[in-house]
Here is the input.
Amino acid sequence: MTIKRFLALVFVGTFVSCSAPISVERIEPAVPVALASAPVPEDIGLLLDRIAVSEKKLKKSNPATYQNYNFLVARLVDAVEASGLEPWKQAVAVRGSKRVYSFSAEEPDNLRDISQKLVSTDSLKFSGDYDVPKHPVVRGVGAPVIVSVASASAAVRESPFIPPYRVATAIVDVKGNKAVLRFHDPFQDEKVSLEGTSRVLTADFDSAVAYSLSETRIDKLGLVRMLNPSRYADTAKLTFVQPYDPDRIPILMVHGLQSTPVTWMPMYLSLMNDPDIRQKYQFWVFSYPSGYPFPYSASLLRHEMDKIAAVHPDHKKIVMMGHSMGTLLSRLMISDAGDNMWRAFFGKSPKQTKIDRKSRRLLEDSFIFDSRSDISRAIFFSGPHRGSDLATSWLGRLGSRLVRVPSFLADAKNALVNVVTVDTAALQLDRAPNSIDTLAPNNRIVQLTSKLPLRPDVPIHSIMGDRGKGDTPDSSDGIVSYWSSHLKNQASEKIVPSGHGSHQHPEGMAEARRILRLHAGLPLAK
Here is the structure.
């Protein structure tokens, strides 16, 4: 084994875990005691017979009757999936023990055209690094179901930000020989009318997210997207975690170096356990190849946010939430650069700078920008605003050498060198900088961006770790030191006893909840 390969394995082993953050397996759901005396049928018609009887017993409104009904509805969903029937397209005739049912299904507008695959959540078992004891679930009537998004559906064409799987709650209403399977969006419907009475709707807020992560294994993209970002250029995307809602405040989460949106799972689960936050907010995530220099990644985020503004011009102002390098991307959304960064690099205005068109566009997107008006607050976790000493260590230099710089960035670097003397403080002068280079404290890019003025009307909150040492202002989370993560004129600052993962520490998540309740005008002592 060569020394270079050995060092590469050391670097990879330092930052990468091979275990899945969330894994899923199919299980046999436990049969409620009241239903265990007779075999539960798999036939749709016979299930409708049992559901009709169970539905009438809901008038008693006790947990046992709800449990029985929900279990039977879940088994009906499984039977529909296994049969290949599509009752949401047209009613189908199914035979029960004494009658033939006209069986149909209905979907709300924001779930229409996506029921291409149905999975009852009680038939799934989740485990992994991000599994938590307390899941955000509301107990009521109805069976939580995971539905897949049809890539060719009208819903996806209208909004390209829809995730691959979403959650719905299934209800079955049987009246005589008519049976209707209804899917409700738990983010929109808190109650449902059944047997003439308004009842609390069962809501499962995390299974679809967990299922998406286990199926897509986006966590595997963290390292490979850092080492070879151009190969995964098409994965730079902003995604909605839940159906878009113009009445909810967006929280946009941005991950850091060698990471993916999976890193936000503990935060998402923690915040969704607060009913008020569920009611007031919606969650978005930005995923991107983290090997790019962060100003270029910020330009990709800017373009994605522009797309959202075009498709959903009515969205409320966004709360940015960034971790590590994601903090720098988020910071640039509320920074005013104008053409100052351009002039600092080239010594002249953009108009006076002669550079080829392709490289010009890339450099202009990265260096010329103003703060966005669609952001109302920012929460920074472990932000390396002035860089990280790790980037200049032997491990950082090794990691930097392993990153394959895209050809278009190399072309831009060559174009830049032809116009101005290259940055003498850069880690490497024989290639274009990558994300690790631009995190070095002596890198010109991080030095310039740290001095850009921030929007004065956007409150900024910083949360960082001190590894429990209590030595601030001389503290560090092991990756980023306090002198780099601290900002002047912050609305608040919170030191938590964590390492670099301050966004996953209980105190960090509690502080985020406090800030979000404050932002939404909610009582803080709840």
User: Anything to note?
Assistant: The chain has a mean pLDDT of 81.
